[in-house]
Amino acid sequence: MNMLKKKQEEFQGFEKELTHLKEKIKQTHRQETKKSFARMFTGIEGVKQIFRHELELGKNYLVIGAPKESLDSLGMIFWKNFLTKQKSKGMKGRLIFNDSLREYAKEIENPQLNTIRFLKDAFEPLTEIIIYDRYVATIIWSQEVLATLIESEEVAKSYTKYFELLWKQTLK
User: Fold this and answer.
1) Which of 41, 86, 100, 153 could form a disulfide with 46 if both were Cys (CB 3.0 to 4.6 A apart)?
2) Are 64 and 96 in contact, with CB atoms under 8 Å apart?
């Protein structure tokens, strides 16, 4: 009987230790999921990966500074497909386009999906910033397209504030 009691106490000790280890693993996992990371993409296929990721998450998004080169590089078929998938997922976007996309904006503006404003025509950068969920993508629409994708809650919040500041200063 004494041996049985001793084994029960030993088992309870193991059980407490396992519970403690389980809690430590959960804490470590929570800390790791909060870490940021960045990835680099090159070329059209690399940029398409970012847009596919955006669609997979299906979250609302913000865009700053899409240039005409983004249309030229990916083509209208790509963008029409993107918008169709966006609509099917119920994603909404607020977009600040470069003035060079004013005509294109007329084709895609849909109050249920997208609200579009424009940067002043004197400002025409090759850079586009997309903010969705906890991600910030920066695409440089140069001859060789380059992009970074940052996963960080903190960075996404910061860029969202930047977007909101610009939104107030843009043209309808």
Assistant:
1) 41
2) yes
Taking only the tens place, the pLDDT of each residue in 56-85 is: 999 999 999 888 888 888 888 898 899 889
How many Cα neighbours within 13 Å face the side chain of 95? 22
127-132 and 135-140 strand pairing: antiparallel
Strand segments, DSSP code E, in 14-75 are 37-42, 61-66
Reply yes or no on whether the pLDDT at 23 is more than 60: yes
Q: Tell me the pLDDT band of 154, cut-offs 50, 70 and 90.
A: very high
pLDDT exceeding 90 applies to what percent of the chain?
A: 43
- Tell me the C-alpha distance between 78 and 5, whole Å: 70
- What's the distance, CA 170 to chain centroid? 22
Looking at residue 94, its amino acid is: R
Judged by DSSP in three states, 125 sits in: coil
Same domain? 79 vs 138: yes
How would you class 136 by CB atoms within 10 Å of its CB: exposed for 0-12, middle for 13-18, buried for 19 or more?
buried
Does residue 6 sit in the same domain as residue 80? no
- Which residues are registered as beta bridge partners of 63? 95, 130
Domain count, the chain: 2
